[in-house]
Write a structure and sequence with these properties.
The chain is α/β, with parallel strands linked by helices. The chain has a single domain, classed as Ribonuclease H-like superfamily/Ribonuclease H (Nucleotidyltransferase, domain 5, 2-Layer Sandwich). The protein is built from nine helices and five strands, in the order βββαααβαβααααα. Strands 3-2-1-4-5 form a five-stranded mixed beta sheet, sandwiched between helices. The longest helix is centred in the last third of the chain and has 17 residues. The chain is globular, with a radius of gyration of 17 Å. The termini are close together.
Amino acid sequence: MIIVFDTEATDLVPGQICQLSYLMVDDKQVQGKNLFFSVDDMSEGAQEVHGFSMDMLTELSGGLYFEDVAQEIFDDFSRASLLVGHNVAADDRYLRVEFERAGMKLRKIATFCTMNYATGITNLKRKVEIGRPKPPRLEELCAHYGITEEAIQVGAAQWFGGGDVQHDARYDTAATYLCLVAAHQQGDLRGVLPEAHVSTL
Protein backbone atom coordinates (compact mmCIF):
# COMPACT_ATOMS: atom_id res chain seq x y z
CA MET A 1 0.00 0.00 0.00
CA ILE A 2 1.12 3.54 -0.81
CA ILE A 3 0.20 6.46 1.43
CA VAL A 4 0.22 9.96 -0.06
CA PHE A 5 0.05 12.54 2.71
CA ASP A 6 0.47 16.13 3.82
CA THR A 7 0.55 17.90 7.16
CA GLU A 8 -0.11 21.41 8.38
CA ALA A 9 1.71 22.36 11.56
CA THR A 10 2.05 25.00 14.24
CA ASP A 11 5.65 25.92 13.44
CA LEU A 12 8.59 25.05 11.22
CA VAL A 13 10.76 23.42 13.87
CA PRO A 14 8.66 20.42 14.68
CA GLY A 15 5.78 21.99 16.43
CA GLN A 16 2.53 20.07 16.51
CA ILE A 17 0.58 18.76 13.55
CA CYS A 18 -2.73 20.60 13.38
CA GLN A 19 -4.03 18.83 10.24
CA LEU A 20 -3.12 15.51 8.66
CA SER A 21 -4.59 14.32 5.37
CA TYR A 22 -3.67 11.07 3.69
CA LEU A 23 -4.73 8.82 0.83
CA MET A 24 -4.28 5.08 1.16
CA VAL A 25 -3.74 3.70 -2.34
CA ASP A 26 -3.92 -0.05 -2.78
CA ASP A 27 -4.62 -1.97 -5.98
CA LYS A 28 -6.01 1.17 -7.66
CA GLN A 29 -8.43 1.75 -4.76
CA VAL A 30 -8.11 5.12 -2.99
CA GLN A 31 -9.35 5.83 0.53
CA GLY A 32 -8.91 9.25 2.12
CA LYS A 33 -8.70 10.36 5.74
CA ASN A 34 -8.49 13.89 7.10
CA LEU A 35 -7.93 14.77 10.74
CA PHE A 36 -7.73 18.08 12.55
CA PHE A 37 -6.07 18.36 15.96
CA SER A 38 -6.21 20.72 18.90
CA VAL A 39 -2.79 22.26 19.62
CA ASP A 40 -1.05 24.00 22.52
CA ASP A 41 0.33 26.92 20.53
CA MET A 42 0.30 28.41 17.01
CA SER A 43 2.95 30.60 15.42
CA GLU A 44 1.72 33.67 13.60
CA GLY A 45 3.59 32.66 10.45
CA ALA A 46 2.06 29.19 10.36
CA GLN A 47 -1.46 30.55 10.81
CA GLU A 48 -0.89 32.99 7.95
CA VAL A 49 0.02 30.06 5.70
CA HIS A 50 -2.78 27.60 6.47
CA GLY A 51 -5.38 29.89 8.05
CA PHE A 52 -6.20 27.69 11.05
CA SER A 53 -6.43 29.44 14.41
CA MET A 54 -6.30 27.56 17.70
CA ASP A 55 -10.01 28.22 18.26
CA MET A 56 -10.88 26.90 14.79
CA LEU A 57 -8.82 23.77 15.40
CA THR A 58 -10.50 23.11 18.74
CA GLU A 59 -13.85 23.21 16.95
CA LEU A 60 -12.76 21.22 13.88
CA SER A 61 -11.07 18.53 15.99
CA GLY A 62 -13.81 18.25 18.57
CA GLY A 63 -11.14 19.01 21.16
CA LEU A 64 -9.02 15.97 20.24
CA TYR A 65 -5.22 16.08 20.17
CA PHE A 66 -2.97 13.97 17.94
CA GLU A 67 -2.28 11.54 20.78
CA ASP A 68 -6.02 10.87 21.12
CA VAL A 69 -6.17 9.28 17.66
CA ALA A 70 -2.49 8.31 17.28
CA GLN A 71 -3.21 4.57 17.32
CA GLU A 72 -5.54 4.75 14.31
CA ILE A 73 -2.98 6.77 12.34
CA PHE A 74 -0.13 4.51 13.45
CA ASP A 75 -2.03 1.40 12.32
CA ASP A 76 -2.70 2.92 8.88
CA PHE A 77 0.88 4.09 8.31
CA SER A 78 2.32 0.80 9.58
CA ARG A 79 0.60 -0.94 6.65
CA ALA A 80 2.33 1.27 4.06
CA SER A 81 5.29 0.16 1.98
CA LEU A 82 5.85 3.67 0.56
CA LEU A 83 5.11 7.19 1.83
CA VAL A 84 4.72 9.91 -0.80
CA GLY A 85 4.66 13.66 -0.27
CA HIS A 86 5.76 16.97 -1.71
CA ASN A 87 8.82 17.71 0.46
CA VAL A 88 8.06 14.41 2.17
CA ALA A 89 11.05 14.59 4.53
CA ALA A 90 9.45 17.48 6.43
CA ASP A 91 6.05 15.79 6.74
CA ASP A 92 7.66 12.48 7.73
CA ARG A 93 9.65 14.27 10.45
CA TYR A 94 6.55 16.00 11.85
CA LEU A 95 4.68 12.68 11.91
CA ARG A 96 7.47 10.76 13.65
CA VAL A 97 7.85 13.46 16.30
CA GLU A 98 4.12 13.25 17.03
CA PHE A 99 4.28 9.45 17.30
CA GLU A 100 7.23 9.71 19.69
CA ARG A 101 5.27 12.14 21.85
CA ALA A 102 2.51 9.53 21.97
CA GLY A 103 5.01 6.82 22.97
CA MET A 104 5.06 5.13 19.56
CA LYS A 105 7.87 4.43 17.12
CA LEU A 106 7.00 4.00 13.46
CA ARG A 107 9.24 1.58 11.58
CA LYS A 108 11.38 2.93 8.76
CA ILE A 109 9.28 3.15 5.60
CA ALA A 110 10.56 4.05 2.13
CA THR A 111 9.67 7.57 1.00
CA PHE A 112 9.25 9.25 -2.38
CA CYS A 113 9.42 13.02 -2.69
CA THR A 114 7.54 14.50 -5.64
CA MET A 115 9.41 17.78 -5.17
CA ASN A 116 12.91 16.29 -5.33
CA TYR A 117 12.05 13.81 -8.07
CA ALA A 118 10.49 16.48 -10.30
CA THR A 119 13.29 19.05 -9.97
CA GLY A 120 15.10 17.73 -13.04
CA ILE A 121 11.86 17.21 -14.99
CA THR A 122 10.39 20.69 -14.50
CA ASN A 123 13.89 22.24 -14.83
CA LEU A 124 12.84 25.59 -13.33
CA LYS A 125 15.31 28.44 -13.22
CA ARG A 126 16.41 29.87 -9.88
CA LYS A 127 16.49 33.61 -9.25
CA VAL A 128 20.19 33.23 -8.53
CA GLU A 129 21.92 30.69 -10.75
CA ILE A 130 23.77 27.99 -8.77
CA GLY A 131 24.11 25.36 -11.47
CA ARG A 132 21.03 23.27 -10.75
CA PRO A 133 17.27 23.77 -11.19
CA LYS A 134 14.87 25.08 -8.56
CA PRO A 135 12.71 22.45 -6.84
CA PRO A 136 9.12 23.01 -8.00
CA ARG A 137 6.44 24.26 -5.66
CA LEU A 138 3.42 21.97 -5.69
CA GLU A 139 1.43 24.38 -7.86
CA GLU A 140 4.35 24.49 -10.34
CA LEU A 141 4.38 20.70 -10.56
CA CYS A 142 0.62 20.69 -11.12
CA ALA A 143 1.07 23.23 -13.93
CA HIS A 144 3.76 21.03 -15.50
CA TYR A 145 1.34 18.10 -15.65
CA GLY A 146 -1.66 20.21 -16.65
CA ILE A 147 -3.54 19.52 -13.43
CA THR A 148 -6.06 22.29 -12.85
CA GLU A 149 -7.23 23.78 -9.58
CA GLU A 150 -10.71 22.50 -10.41
CA ALA A 151 -9.43 18.93 -10.83
CA ILE A 152 -7.70 19.13 -7.45
CA GLN A 153 -10.85 20.48 -5.80
CA VAL A 154 -12.90 17.66 -7.31
CA GLY A 155 -10.39 15.12 -6.00
CA ALA A 156 -10.30 16.68 -2.54
CA ALA A 157 -14.10 16.65 -2.40
CA GLN A 158 -14.24 13.03 -3.57
CA TRP A 159 -11.58 11.70 -1.19
CA PHE A 160 -11.98 13.99 1.82
CA GLY A 161 -15.35 15.68 1.47
CA GLY A 162 -13.73 19.12 1.15
CA GLY A 163 -10.52 21.12 1.12
CA ASP A 164 -10.60 23.48 -1.84
CA VAL A 165 -7.65 25.83 -1.19
CA GLN A 166 -3.86 25.51 -1.19
CA HIS A 167 -2.27 24.81 2.20
CA ASP A 168 -5.30 22.90 3.34
CA ALA A 169 -3.71 19.46 3.67
CA ARG A 170 -6.65 17.87 1.84
CA TYR A 171 -6.04 20.03 -1.23
CA ASP A 172 -2.27 19.50 -1.17
CA THR A 173 -2.60 15.74 -0.72
CA ALA A 174 -5.05 15.51 -3.62
CA ALA A 175 -2.70 17.60 -5.77
CA THR A 176 0.30 15.43 -4.88
CA TYR A 177 -1.59 12.24 -5.71
CA LEU A 178 -2.81 13.61 -9.05
CA CYS A 179 0.78 14.60 -9.92
CA LEU A 180 1.95 11.09 -9.02
CA VAL A 181 -0.69 9.52 -11.27
CA ALA A 182 0.13 11.93 -14.12
CA ALA A 183 3.83 11.15 -13.78
CA HIS A 184 3.03 7.44 -13.98
CA GLN A 185 0.79 7.90 -17.03
CA GLN A 186 3.51 9.87 -18.82
CA GLY A 187 6.14 7.24 -18.04
CA ASP A 188 8.13 9.51 -15.74
CA LEU A 189 8.18 6.95 -12.93
CA ARG A 190 9.58 4.14 -15.07
CA GLY A 191 12.77 2.99 -13.42
CA VAL A 192 12.23 5.47 -10.57
CA LEU A 193 9.77 3.50 -8.45
CA PRO A 194 9.54 -0.31 -8.24
CA GLU A 195 6.84 -1.77 -10.46
CA ALA A 196 5.04 -3.11 -7.38
CA HIS A 197 4.44 0.47 -6.28
CA VAL A 198 3.66 1.92 -9.70
CA SER A 199 1.17 -0.82 -10.58
CA THR A 200 -1.02 0.02 -7.58
CA LEU A 201 -1.71 3.50 -9.01
